[in-house]
Design brief:
The structure is a single chain. With 326 residues, the chain is α+β, with helices and mostly antiparallel strands. The protein folds into two domains: 2-165, 2-Layer Sandwich (Ribosomal Protein S5, domain 2); 173-314, GHMP kinase, C-terminal domain (Alpha-Beta Plaits), CATH 3.30.70. It has helices spanning 64-81, 103-118, 125-135, 188-198, 202-222, 225-244, 255-269, 293-301, and strands at 2-7, 10-14, 19-21, 26-27, 31-37, 41-48, 55-58, 86-93, 147-151, 160-165, 173-178, 274-277, 284-288, 308-314, 319-324. Strands 2, 5, 9, 10, 11, 12, 13 and 14 form an eight-stranded antiparallel sheet that branches. It has a five-stranded mixed sheet with strand order 7-8-6-1-15. It has a two-stranded antiparallel sheet with strand order 3-4. Strand 3 (19-21) and strand 4 (26-27) form a beta hairpin. It is globular. The structure holds ligand DP6. Ligand DP6 is lined by residues 12, 15-17, 25, 31, 102, 104-105, 136-138, 188-189, 279-280.
Length: 326
């Protein structure tokens, strides 16, 4: 009853920020992401009669905030399997945790896939989507490869997630500029809830989002990089404008984040196929065509405050590495 699964984090080009139902963790907006091959979360789950409660070790230490969400996912899996055993969960990332690199996405994708494998469940992909979403709204996207759409519109009250473009069809690359490895002060969960409650711009964000999503999806269909650059940067800056307009304000950028944004805009103005996106943290992700990656990496590394860069190609969805039966 032990299984190990791996998942890559993902980065949204058209973003999720805000919930329509906190209990079921339903996003108020759909989203479009790319799965980041090169970065990994590895999660091992063991269900055992010896345990008196669920236990989580994240990069070697207990994590109370992730605990509750983990138990929600485990409860769903236990219900499917008809068992009441507790589980020990050990999860490790090979990239900075909790600093806007979507570690909760890869974490809950790997947890769901490992848990289902340990309990010998063969669940439909959209059931894995539902269970992983209870952990984190961005997690379903890490179950899938390449360009991924999380659709909230076609089945009200549910989320449907799927690949819209396999990695080989449009091999985009992503260079992450790490500007801080400190854990962020306000989590995405808390930040998006306070934006909903206390920003005058929240309705404008939700109301204008479907058009951004439709535009982003059509850029993937047409492989139109420059149009994708335009809508993705717009959507990112709109999310941060919403965050900044929240009371109290949420300002996720560092001076280096802003310097990276300006450098990427300048590169694109000079004809280099690159654009940026930034999540709820100070790291900048530069999305580019393969021929531009060397120049983009070199430019980002020259910016004061950039601690390191991480190279990603588009990766596959979460997968089982090993299963050990009792
Ligand atoms: C800015 O998925 O971490 O990265 O559902 O509360 O766990 P919860 O939120 P989470 O939020 C992600 C926010 C974002 C944008 C995105 O990934 O779409």
């Amino acid at each position: 009853m032990r299984a190990t699964a791996l998942a890559h984090p993902n980065v949204a080009l058209i973003k999720y920020w805000g919930k329509s139902d906190t209990k079921r963790n339903l996003p108020a907006t759909g989203s479009l992401s790319v799965t980041l091959g090169g970065l990994h979360t590895r999660t091992t789950i063991e269900f055992s009669k010896q345990l008196k409660q669920d236990q989580l070790l994240l990069d070697g230490s207990a994590d109370a905030a992730a605990d509750l969400r983990m138990v929600r996912c485990l409860d769903e899996l236990r219900q499917h399997a008809g068992v009441s055993l507790f589980a020990k969960v050990e999860s490790a990332n090979d990239f900075p945790t909790g600093a806007g690199l979507a570690s909760s996405a890869s974490g809950f994708a790997a947890l769901t896939v490992a848990g289902a494998a340990a309990l010998d469940l063969s669940l439909e992909p959209q059931e894995l989507v539902r269970i992983s979403r209870l952990g984190s709204g961005s997690a379903p996207r890490s179950l899938f490869s390449g360009g991924v759409w999380l659709d909230i519109a076609s089945s009200p009250g549910e989320t449907i997630c799927s690949t819209v473009s396999e990695p080989a069809r449009w091999p985009l690359e992503v260079i992450v500029a790490v500007t801080s490895i400190e854990k962020k002060a306000v989590s995405s969960t808390a930040g998006m809830e306070s934006s909903r409650a206390a920003s005058p711009y929240f309705d404008g964000w939700v109301g204008s989002h479907p058009q951004d999503l439709a535009d982003g999806l059509s850029c993937f269909t047409d492989k139109n990089f420059m149009r994708l650059a335009d809508v993705a940067e717009h959507n990112c800056l709109k999310m941060h404008a919403l965050a900044m307009s929240t009371r109290p304000p949420l300002l996720y950028w560092s001076p280096a984040t802003l310097a990276c944004m300006q450098a990427v805009m300048k590169l694109r103005a000079d004809g280099i196929p690159v654009f940026f996106t930034v999540d709820a943290g100070p790291q900048l992700k530069a999305v580019c065509l393969p021929e531009a990656s060397a120049i983009v990496r070199e430019r980002l590394q020259s910016i004061p405050g950039v601690l390191q860069t991480l190279d990603c190609t588009l990766g596959q969805g979460a997968w089982v590495e090993s299963v050990v039966k009792a």
